[in-house]
Amino acid sequence: MPVQLTTALRVVGTSLFALAVLGGILAAYVTGYQFIHTEKHYLSFGLYGAILGLHLLIQSLFAFLEHRRMRRAGQVLKLPSPRRGSVALCIAAYQEDPDYLRKCLRSAQRISFPDLKVVMVVDGNRQEDAYMLDIFHEVLGGTEQAGFFVWRSNFHEAGEGETEASLQEGMDRVRDVVRASTFSCIMQKWGGKREVMYTAFKALGDSVDYIQVCDSDTVLDPACTIEMLRVLEEDPQVGGVGGDVQPPGKGMAVEDDQVQAAQVRATEAWSVHQRHVSREQ
User: Fold this and answer.
1) How far apart are the first and last CA of the chain?
2) Is residue 98 located within the same domain as residue 191?
């Protein structure tokens, strides 16, 4: 039987069944017929209850049959295993609360994804911004996998005392630190969040397949990266995936002492980075 005809019959049959149930409920309500009832009607069972019970039974039967059909279809259809792409997590930081920043970096450290790169770009390179670099060293530093660079400029505005040669040297240094380090921190001249994300994207270039982004007050679920990557790689029609963002107040245990995080639980945003990035001139 053609698929379209089968679908049409199912729609018609479901509609007729719904009308029959509605008519039966209305008739039962109007007649008020009782099969069983006690004095003062403390306990009663009538036509109305019988129709509702039959409706529930039929719905349960249909749900069971549909569930069994879907399980059989899933066993027959074997989807190819998704290719495991490389991912970089980019964290945008600006005058962040120290406790929030620590929780964000510790949650990034706990993400269950092999070879995940973490790039934190600090929007500001003044002395009062240095505490964020100190927190980066505290949580993610201390190993050969960590690198940092304090840049006088950014990619669109030269800092004080920069020459054309030193500006280009700084750009190369940012790129080298980000690409060579598993955990990297770049402090740069203030330019806003767009400038921060531009630095991360520009430095990474085509060295990774995907870029995941979040703010520095975000607490990430350990499974967030692998779950979103699974969606992206199983369906070529999907170009971007957002996380389950929960507002402050719901809470999540992020510390060993069960402190409830007052931040979001999963990623604030997820951005697909083109596999072949055209370098800007």
Assistant:
1) 60
2) yes
